[in-house]
């Protein structure tokens, strides 16, 4: 009887591990092997409290694109180009200056890993870093890291990103943003 219980337990554990491996391989979560994946450090266990974490892979993104295809074609086109989205939101409950330094160091490390800076905004106690990784003319990843005295946000988009869709998506979501024209290489 004890051997049967032991075998049943091993079978159950093997089944659970197989399901987890299958789910992560089928695109439920953002893929780590994608060229646009940014290996992002923690912003500090003692200085932050993670309030929100999301990792979405291609299966969920394609489903979302299919669901909104007719209603919002611009957003659907952007979603179809994505392989993964990772979002982390932290409440800063410790040393905000130490968190700001970690954000700056994270940006520096990404630049050493061939991420190109797109934007840097530093105002008072707020900083925002936007970086992209590309291959040729194709954008493969976009990462945004921002912090102020109260909150830090990290976003990583992976896939084949077409900047022409960004303005359309901002319009569709009714986000007030400056009118930005995308330069093309000719």
> What is the overall number of helices?
5
Average pLDDT number? 77
> What is the count of β-strands?
6
User: Would you tell me the structural class of the helices and strands?
Assistant: alpha+beta
Shape: globular
Q: What kind of sheet is the major sheet? A: 6 strands, antiparallel
Q: In which range does the helix fraction lie?
A: 25-40%
Q: Give me the Rg, rounded.
A: 20 Å
Spatial gap, N to C terminus: 75 Å
Q: Which regions have little confidence, pLDDT < 50, spanning 5+ residues?
A: 1-7, 18-26, 177-186
Strand proportion, as a percent range, falls in 25-35%
Strand order of the largest sheet: 1-2-6-5-4-3
Written as H for each helix and E for each strand, in order along the chain, the element string is HEHHEHEEEEH
Describe this structure in words.
- With 186 residues, the chain is an alpha+beta fold.
- Helices cover 38% and strands 32% of the residues.
- The protein contains 5 helices and 6 strands; from the N terminus they run H-E-H-H-E-H-E-E-E-E-H.
- A hairpin with a 2-residue loop joins strand 4 and strand 5.
- The longest helix has 24 residues.
- It is globular.
- The termini are far apart.
- 25% of the residues are buried.
- The N terminus and C terminus are likely disordered.
């Amino acid at each position: 009887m004890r051997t049967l219980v032991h075998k049943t337990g091993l079978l159950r554990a093997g089944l659970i591990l197989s399901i987890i491996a299958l789910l992560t391989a089928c695109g439920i979560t953002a893929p780590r092997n994608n060229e646009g994946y940014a290996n992002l450090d923690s912003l500090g266990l003692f200085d932050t409290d993670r309030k929100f974490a999301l990792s979405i892979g291609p299966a969920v993104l394609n489903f979302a694109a299919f669901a909104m295809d007719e209603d919002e074609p611009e957003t659907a086109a952007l979603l179809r180009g994505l392989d993964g989205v990772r979002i982390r939101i932290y409440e800063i409950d410790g040393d905000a200056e130490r968190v700001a330094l970690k954000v700056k160091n994270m940006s520096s490390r990404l630049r050493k890993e061939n991420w190109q800076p797109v934007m840097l905004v530093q105002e008072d106690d707020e900083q925002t870093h936007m970086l992209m990784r590309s291959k040729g003319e194709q954008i493969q990843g976009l990462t945004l890291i921002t912090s102020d005295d109260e909150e830090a946000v990290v976003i990583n988009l992976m896939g084949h990103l077409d900047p022409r869709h960004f303005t359309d998506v901002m319009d569709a979501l009714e986000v007030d943003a400056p009118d930005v024209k995308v330069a093309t290489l000719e």
